Structures are given as C-alpha cells and as structure tokens.
Amino acid sequence: MQSMKVICPNGHLGFAPLKPGSFRIGIDAGPDIIAADSGSDDVGPVPLGSDTSTSPLEWQTQDLEAMLLASRERKVPMIIGSAGDTGANSRVDLYLKIIRELAAKHRLAPFKLGWFYSEVDREWLRGKIRSGDAVTGLDARPDLDEAELDATDRIVAMAGVHPFIKLLDMGADVIIGGRSSDCAVFAAPAIRAGFPESLSYYLGKVLECASFCAEPYGGKETVLGEISHEDVKVTAMHPDQRCTVASVAGHAMYERSSPYYEYVAGGTLDMRECRYEQVGPKTTRITGPKFIPIDRVRVKLEGSGKVGERFVGIAGVRDPYTIANIDRVIQWARDQVVERFGTTGYELHYTVYGRNGIMGSMEPLRDRPGHELCVVVQGVAPTRAMAELVCMTGTRQMFYARLPDVKGTAGSVAFVLDEVMQASPAYRWTLNHTVGIDDPMELFPCHVATVGA
Amino acid sequence: MTTRTLSQLAKTIRSKNAGTDKITFDIIFRERPEYEMVKKSGAITRPKMAKLLNIDEARITDFVEYDEAYAIKFTILREHPSGSAGDPDIFGSQQYAPLLGIEIEEN
Predict the structure, then answer these.
(1) Looking at the DSSP assignment, which residues form a beta bridge with residue B26?
(2) Which contiguous run of DSSP H or E holds residue B98?
(3) Which helix (H) or strand (E) holds B74?
(4) How far is A329 from chain B (nearest CA, A)?
(5) How far is the C-alpha of A188 from the C-alpha of A182, rounded, in Å?
C-alpha cells in the first residue's frame, strides 16, 4: 500500500453533531478508514463517576448513523474510540446497541462488529500497589495509595493502538472502543498497514479534533489525512476551510501542555523536528515526526470518585456596602452552617460572580467588584437531605447577614428563587496516574460478533 | 515608541484544560513580525505570567516559545482538578482574559 486515506468528521463524537456537507465531500474523496474519537476528560469527573454521558443520545446516534452508512456503503472500516464521552463499559455497550439498531433499521448486509472494554478493576490495582509496582501520579500528583483507590467509583485505562489493531486482525468492519488515546484511533489502521509509527501517530494527532486543525475556525467539519511512507498530508474538506502551516502547527498545541510531545501507551511522539509545508490551497504536508517506543508499556488511568450529593443556591447583591463586605456576608452564612453541622463531613462552596467568580484568586481585578454580584452556593454532603440543608442554610443565611452599618435591614441579598436546587452529585478526579503492564492487551479485552446475519 | 495591547497583536489568545489537573494558555500570532516583536519585548515570561495570575512560578509547568506556529504557550497546574465541586471553569476556557490587555512596547 502506497498511501492510506483516513477521514475524521468530528473531534468528540456526540458532544455536538457533525456537519453533513463536508462529511459527504470527505466520503467522496474515497477514504480507506472513517474514524472518530468520542471522549474527553474535559467534561469533568461526573460522567465517569456516575456512569453517564454528557452527550445526548440523539447526537450520538445521528453521527454513528452517518459514519456507519458511509462505512458500509464504501466497505471500509469505521473506528470509534472512547465511546460515549468516558469510554466506560456501559458506554461501549450503549454504542453497540445503537450500531445494532441502526443495522436493523437500514437492513444492512452482515458485517463484523468489534469492541473492547477499558474499565480497570479496583482490586487489580490494589494488587499493583501492594506488590510495590507503583501506580505513578501525573501532573504533580502523588503515587496512588489505597485510601484514594477506595474513594474511587470507576476507573478507565487509556488504550493505545493495540486493541484496535487486534480487532482489525480479527476482521472487524466496525470498531467501538473503550477509553483510548485520541490519536490511537487513527494511528492503529496505519501502523497495521505497515506505515511508520512516527507518521501514523502524527496522523492521529493531527486528525483527532477534525477541523480544529483547519482555518478559519469552525468545528465539526471533516478533514482528510493521507499517510505515505514519507509524509502525512492533511486537507480540509469544507469548501471554505484550509489546512495551513499555521493551522496545522498550531493544532499541535491544542489542549496539550507541550506542543512537542504526545504520550501514548507504547511510547512518545516527538514533534520537535516536524516540518510543515503548504502543498495545495487546502493541504499541508508534514514530515519529520519521531516515535520513541518505551520498554515497558505504561497506561494512563482516569478515575472518578463520588464526593456527595449536591444542591445549588443563588443569591444576588446590589447594595454597594454589602458588596464591599461580601466576604463577611459569606462568613456569616458559613458560621451558621458550622453551628448546625460542625466543620467537617460536608463541603460548602461560594462562587462570587461579578468579582472573581471565574478566576478565583487568579483574578487580577478581584478588588474591583461590579455594581451587582451573583453568588452561587454549592452544598455537598453524604445524603440528599443533608446536602439540601447545608446549601439552604448557606444560601438563606446570607439574607440575614449582620453587617454593622447596613442601611437595608430587610434582607442582605436578592433571591431569584427562594429555594435550592438539586444538581448532579459532586465527583472528583481521583486518578490521573499511569500503571505499568507487561502485555499491552492485558486491560483491554476484545470481542467480535456478526451483525445483521 | 508606541504601545499596543496583546489583543491587538495576536490572532488567538485562549485557555483550555490540558488533562484534568492543568490549564494551558496559547497566544498565537498571524505573522512572524508580531510574534518576534512580542517575544523580544520580554512582556510574556514565566515570572510575569505568574505575577499576572497571582500564582507561584512553580505552578507554571511549561513555557514554550513555539516558532513553528508563531505562538507562545504556557501551562499551569490547577488549584483543584477540573470539575471538582466549586470549580467555576470545568473546561478552563475563560482563564485567559487578563492576557488580553498586556501592553507591548514597540520600537
């Protein structure tokens, strides 16, 4: 094979729908693979912890339908990674169900559906910790200990190319992956077809967010990557978008702490010596990436643990004296919560919009609040009843705050609702770690079944 | 000597999560001259960004002048992981505003 064409219609399938116009153009360009990633840790710890998706079922179904029909029409593989935002087992099963229903709906000719799971058993990890095989913290986190493991509800491991290649070897026409590195989804078929690892991982890196590597800015449009043994060429499919040296080089920075390195299960993509060249109006050519394989594969783990049930309250302030003393108002309300519940066993958070709600202590203008404030109160506690009462006390007591020189003695805050509202339970990221494995397939069981027979 | 703000000189100024524990900031210029001028001005450095954001310099984990894309990029450790209760910016996407008004002296 001299070259291979891969199209990506969506940088996070399901989070917002793909745009059909450029997808059609991409299909007409004759891709060998149609692939997309469907997950991200951007959405916070709640979906993984509570085993849900943030993406609506309708959008997930719509994009899977477009890709499945194109894949079956052209008889080329369709590959999805990180199913349903988190890549948890239930999200893989959800996508399998959608694919099966779509196959029946469109009476598709029989095809092989392959999938793998990514969830990690807590006891397996406990064994690692106990045997002294450190579960290493990333981004300044300490190594995992058993207390933090016990605080975790669900863990997924980030697959590299290995399970995707295995499923292609098993004859899968359509692959639904658990949690996986975005770039592995695209790199796997290229590596399997014999292209260099360096260019294959780069192909994945540049395609993973679809049209975010093109300009002008506009998400959810299809891009096409073509890999050869010498280079990668990436082309925007939307009539008004182009892949330029600046847009492609710029994309290497996106959502990464460094533009030069990408770590995957199996090694590191080194982009320091990448060269970018405009070779057509919509096409940029890339050469020079390197891949440094690792001796013992380390897999990234994501874990989320429940902190408690959560309620939210909202209070507004207009009196300039009260605004100047908002921290005292909050302290008063906090003290009332302490009086009732003590100092531990719950969380109470205040976000002061109009002062430093968005940036907290990083806000340079934190000493210059606006003429009105909105305070969002979050109460988190083990039970719903307690969370509601913590939040209610923390919100309503702002109304009764005792400020010495206040003129308005009939209420210190304005309520848009005289109630507190139940929100999603609070979770937190408990794991952002790596674990060493001897067999890269160890954590990713693969399955294949025929659909439509 | 004239002064222009970073928002007048840069094409893109943005912030976004880089994983669960970090936020990364990108300042991207359309053309090389603006990029080189800002780079040489010394207005965007590790210590200056730490001061602007009221954080210890140790919280800046990466600082890169990325010539290939005419971009300056730096990354900070979050105070708490993204989406923890009380985190007001789950995606880290609205932390860049203080960069917009940075003044660059042009020779």
Answers:
(1) B14, B73
(2) helix B97-100
(3) strand B71-77
(4) 18
(5) 11
Band the pLDDT of A254: cuts 50, 70, 90. confident
Beta-bridge partner residues of A49: none
At position A88, the amino acid (one-letter code) is A
Predicted model pTM: 0.94
- In the prediction, which pLDDT does A453 show? 67
Looking at the partner chain, which of A257, A310, A362 has a beta carbon nearest the beta carbon of B75? A257
Q: Which residues of A touch B15 (CB under 8 A)?
A: none
- Indicate whether this complex's ipTM tops 0.90: yes
For B20, nearest residue in chain A (alpha carbons): A41
Q: In the A/B pair of chains, how many CB contacts fall below 8 A? A: 137
